[in-house]
Design goal:
four-stranded parallel sheet, 47% helix, alpha/beta, Rossmann fold
């Protein structure tokens, strides 16, 4: 955010419902509500000509918002390591991940959320589990800090939201120029079943791939990602 502020942009981030400092509401932990929440925020702040940048689950949220609510208020869209078009394996999406992968995430979260978040950040999220990678404790601890601020219920139900939501129709309805950025070593949202497929569905999509970049590339390769 500091990078874009220094470039003269008004820069706004929100904490998704049940996450961070937002209220720990008991319901609405799905993409329809996530996008509708953004719509209310945009109207409340009366923002027009916005560039929405969504990473991971946020990429799905941003895509659904722009497709269903934000056409008149959006100038451009950026999806980074994003979950669309759909993560889970289905008949229509044979290259997706088996549902058992997401069931395992739910089990680990329910069994020991604090340890799960440490392991997730110290391992596949930032690629720190790769041979020769140097784990950065500050990044891991900050990821854990942000995660533990939120609601366990919101996070548990959010796994279904990011993994099982089908964004195919949303992508086809997006008219604004959209850049898709994805690392080839993304262990959370595998590139083969995400970015190239999304690019084909978009009317004005540009796909950019980055060799051996992890899912958390916004942090591990911040300077390059920001400039792109």
């Amino acid at each position: 955010m500091l990078f874009f502020i220094e470039k003269g942009y008004r820069t706004i981030a929100h904490d998704r419902r049940g996450h961070g400092r937002s209220t720990r509401v008991s319901d609405g932990h799905d993409m329809d509500h996530y996008a509708a929440d953004v719509a209310v925020l945009m109207v409340h702040l009366d923002i027009k000509g916005a560039i929405h940048i969504g990473h991971s689950t946020g990429g799905g949220e941003a895509a659904r918002y722009v497709a269903r609510h934000g056409k008149e208020r959006t100038a451009k869209l950026v999806l980074i390591g994003a979950v669309p078009p759909i993560m889970v394996k289905t008949q229509a999406n044979p290259g997706g991940l088996p549902i058992e992968v997401f069931d395992s995430l739910r089990r680990q979260l329910a069994d020991n959320r604090a340890q799960f978040y440490l392991d997730f950040a110290a391992g596949p999220f930032y690629g720190f589990n790769r041979p020769g990678a140097s784990a950065r404790p500050g990044i891991i601890q900050n990821w854990w800090r942000q995660a533990m601020m939120g609601s366990a219920k919101a996070h548990h139900e959010g796994i279904k939201a990011f993994s099982e939501t089908d964004f195919t129709e949303d992508l086809g309805n997006i008219d604004v120029p959209t850049v898709i950025m994805h690392g080839t070593d993304d262990q959370i949202v595998p590139i083969e079943a995400s970015a190239p497929l999304s690019a084909k569905l978009l009317k004005h999509g540009t796909l950019k791939t980055y060799d051996n970049f992890p899912h958390g590339m916004c942090t591990t390769h911040a300077a390059l990602v920001n400039n792109e």
